[in-house]
Amino acid sequence: MPELPEVEALKDFLTDHLVGREVVRVLPVAISVLKTYDPPLSAFEGREVTAVHRHGKFLELEADGLHFVTHLARAGWLHWKDRLPDGPPRPGKGPLAMRVALETGEGFDLTEAGTQKRLAVYVVRDPAEIPGVARLGPDPLADDFDEARFAALLEGERRQLKGALRDQSLIAGVGNAYSDEILHAAKMSPFKLASALTPEETRRLYAALRATLTEAVERSRGVAAGRLKAEKKSGLRVHGRAGELCPVCGDTIREVSFSDSSLQYCPTCQTGGKPLADRRMSRLLK
């Protein structure tokens, strides 16, 4: 799933390639991707893109008072084309969900792999009309997101750190991968309660949050849209690396599986050397 650093990089890429250019066609291929109908999708055609914004994991194109907003969800992606194919795309069983064409012949495709179709596109007069945008918490890379604000968010928060970091209404933009990376950098268990943090631990977690995301954004800056997925994976230390050696201590990275996701962590760095209970795997072994 694209998270804050990748969407930030897409924002920068599209700013360079879209701002000042006219959108001539917006062609839906999978109708289910479109979540709004007033104004119609066609209202975005014939308008000049004036800015590109990011709201957490949402990407927004602004054009003459209208806003084209997309959430790439778990398996969606944006593919830039220096020259779009001639003729309209054909509906079918492929991954193509929507095509946006410029007057220059350039444009981009929105695609989604897999069977769970969660990619979403909205055309609205105000991004705040979108429930997912309206409920977003503060951006963790904003200038005013300081340690005191972070501590106030966690105060009284009785969820585990992994879940709290992924809650978009608490902090915008962090997903499954970067929550693993942040907790590894902070040397904290994903199952530790947020409300149980000491002031020193809160300070350490805040520093890890800012540093992990800032470094990921810097790695992604200037990378072409088509290479961002590979860039993300290459920079991850623990997420998606179960069975490999921790680059910090050399212990074996472990995994805890859930019904629709998993987390990875280093026992030596994060849990005092003790493996976390993987209830799903324990049930399978009985």
What brief labels describe this structure?
single chain, 286 residues, alpha+beta
Task: Write up this protein.
The longest helix has 22 residues, at 199-220. The chain contains nine helices and eleven strands. It has helices at 4-18, 131-134, 147-154, 161-166, 176-186, 199-220, 228-235, 267-270, 279-285, and strands spanning 22-28, 47-48, 51-55, 58-63, 66-71, 76-81, 96-102, 107-112, 120-124, 254-257, 262-265. A hairpin with a 4-residue loop joins strand 10 and strand 11. Helices cover 30% and strands 20% of the residues. The protein is an alpha+beta fold and 286 residues long. Helix 1 (4-18) packs parallel to helix 6.
What's the number of extended β-strand segments? 11
- Tell me the radius of gyration: 20 Å
Structural class: alpha+beta
**Weakly predicted, low-confidence segments:** 281-286
Strand order of the largest sheet: 2-1-7-8-6
**Share of helix, binned:** 25-40%
Overall 3D shape: elongated
Q: Which strand-content bin applies to the residues?
A: 15-25%
Mean pLDDT, all residues:
93
What is the terminal separation in angstroms? 32 Å
Number of helices: 9
SSE string, helix = H, strand = E? HEEEEEEEEEHHHHHHEEHH
Could you give a short account of the major beta sheet? Answer: 5 strands, antiparallel
Give a summary of the structure in a few sentences.
The protein is of the alpha+beta class.
Q: Strands, helices and their partners?
A:
Layout: H1 4-18, E1 22-28, E2 47-48, E3 51-55, E4 58-63, E5 66-71, E6 76-81, E7 96-102, E8 107-112, E9 120-124, H2 131-134, H3 147-154, H4 161-166, H5 176-186, H6 199-220, H7 228-235, E10 254-257, E11 262-265, H8 267-270, H9 279-285
Antiparallel strand pairs: 1-2, 1-7, 3-4, 4-5, 5-9, 6-8, 7-8, 10-11
Helix pairs in contact: 1-6, 5-6
